[in-house]
Amino acid sequence: MNKIASTITSPERHGVVGGEQRLVRIAFATTVIVLCLWVLVPIWLLIANTFSTPEEVNGFPKRFFPSFDTESVEFFLGFYGVGKALWNSIVVATLTMIMSIGIGAPAGYALSRFEFRGKSTFRILVLMTRAFPLPLLALPMAVLFLRVGLDDTVFALALVHTTLALPFAVLITFSLFSGVPIELEEAAWTLGCTRLKAFRKVILPLVLPGISASAIFAFVVSWNEVFAAAVLTIEHRTLPAFLLQSLDVAPLHLKFAGGAMLVVPALIFIFMVRKYLFAMWGIANR
Amino acid sequence: MRVRFAGNCRPVHETKPFFSAPRDRDARPEKPVMNPRALPYILLAPATFFLCAFFLYPFVLVAWQAIATDEGELTTKYLSEMFTHWKFNTALTNTFWLVLAVVPIQVALSLLMATLVTKMQKGRDMVLYIWTIPLGISDLAAGLIWLTIFEQTGFLNSLLTNVGAIEEPIAFLGYESKGTIFLAVVLAEIWRATAIMLVILVAGMGLIPKEYDEAAQVFGASRWQRFIKVTLPLLKPSLQTALILRVILAFEVFAVVVALAGTNLPVLMSEVYNRQFDMQDTHVAAAFALLILVISVACTLVIMRALRTPKGASL
Question: Which of A74, A93, A285, B264 has a beta carbon 3.0–4.6 Å from A222's, enabling a disulfide?
Fold first, then answer.
């Protein structure tokens, strides 16, 4: 096969069509670079706005390079309610992370290691969450939470965010555990480990990086969520909810510094989990 | 990336220990602490309970709130209040136009990006990271990012002034310029949400064996023919998943619109929010939510049917 392939491609590489080939390569590289700029330039503009003085942000025309002034950022951080909103965001996201992994990882393990009745039903239940607009859940939950006295709490919001993150947690842990051969576990059993000990000593160290990646992903899901947060909280608003509700009153430099505050942690997190992105999304096909 | 379903794996102590033949009662294998048959159910129970309580039940509840009063009487007054509200038609048509404008471009763009990535030899990881950055960006943040460009003292006006194309900054997002508001939202949505389709398609393309493409090459098929006749049909399952996800998210469009347009471009989701939060009108909000839900499920079914893979034709 390789031989055939190389005989096909070789005339293209060295022969008469060399000029055309080069054109294709240049077009290829240009498209890639343009698409990279398409993603990066808007982010740069937000960052440039964030590190300009409030006067520059509200002034005209804008400079494309910031003066690296932290006055806007300081104004944002000192603004009434921002500190609390930031803290709430962190608490909700952390709770979401713990709950979705705590509930999702056992399910992922069960799916990867056992054949049992109802397995496909559970898989369908998990995949079904993809076919529904989940943030709308916040509406009925608002009524329910009011009834049980959980309204306007960070825990209630974390419950709704966990619903968003749980399907991912289940699917990625399933793929992680499937990647560890069952033979390793069996070897531990024959050497006298209990199921729990074998899991702790053999499986857990192997899947821990992947588990942390999906935990980070759950954190980002919650950190970014706007609609449910804005509907469910009044006193305990998260950062996105706070920003959304102050959109029509806040000055521009507050909005942009707030936007950057949302973007930067997410950028770092996505960089940390980039290896696992495909495991998370690619798996949806099966 | 292939994911293996682990086969039927019974714990060893359940089968006969082969190294020591059972002699008497004492030598029988130790009774497991947990019944291994029950174990998967025990592990699945929390997740199942959680999804039933916080996913299935709320959806029943939201439908109920839309068609019943607090006293539990069935009524259509919330639905008719929604349908007859003066903003309803605008919100509905705006949402549909947005989906129609955004999704086809995203399909084309993500297919192009996925093809480029698969053909790439150097710098693949770097480019892929850059292209998937928007995946981690909140829709509100994406709205704010594009606000830096389109607001009246923003970068687009600055650029146009610097090159001398305009004298005075234009109010792109003003009340009267519905066209540019719509365009700004479309651009922001394409920017933000193409990455999710890209990731699914790249994962899907990784599953297609190279031999198919090489075979088509042997028969003299051009690049375009190979893409249309070989790659695209084999990519159908991934395309289906990507489209379902994307279309549902597109009907949920909310924070991008609010950040860029305020109240100048009402969409379904912003009506839900206004009803629920500003007007405390839970039932009409639920009616809007039910409508979005019905549209989403209908779209899912249509896409599943249109892009179904015949049995046995999958990879």
Answer: A93
pLDDT surpassing 50 at residue A25: yes
Query: Can you tell me the ipTM of this complex?
Result: 0.85
Chosen from A52, A114, A221, A256 to mutate, greatest number of chain B CBs within 10 A:
A114
Domain boundaries, chain A: 2-73, 76-285
What is the CATH number assigned to the segment(s) A76-285? Answer: 1.10.3720.10
Give the chain B residue nearest A164 (alpha carbons). Answer: B55
Q: Which CATH architecture has domain B89-306?
A: Orthogonal Bundle (1.10)
Whose tokens are 């399933």? That residue is A174
Kindly report the nearest CA distance between residue A102 and chain B, in angstroms: 9
Which residue reads 């710098």 in tokens?
Answer: B123
Contact assignment for A103 to B47 by CB distance below 8 Å = yes
Three-state DSSP at B74 gives strand
Cβ atoms of residues A81 and A234 within 8 Å:
no
Domain ranges of chain B: 35-75, 89-306
Select the residue of A174, A220, A283 nearest B136 (Cβ to Cβ).
A220
pLDDT at B29 over 70: no
Closest of B296, B269, B292, B290 to residue B63, by C-alpha:
B290
Is the CB of B54 less than 8 angstroms away from the CB of A160? Answer: yes
Spell out the residues 6+ positions from residue A120 whose beta carbon is closer than 8 angstroms to its own.
none
In contact, A281 and B203? CB cutoff 8 Å: yes
Residues on chain A touching B213 (C-beta within 8 angstroms): none
Report yes or no: B264 and B181 within 8 Å, Cβ to Cβ: yes
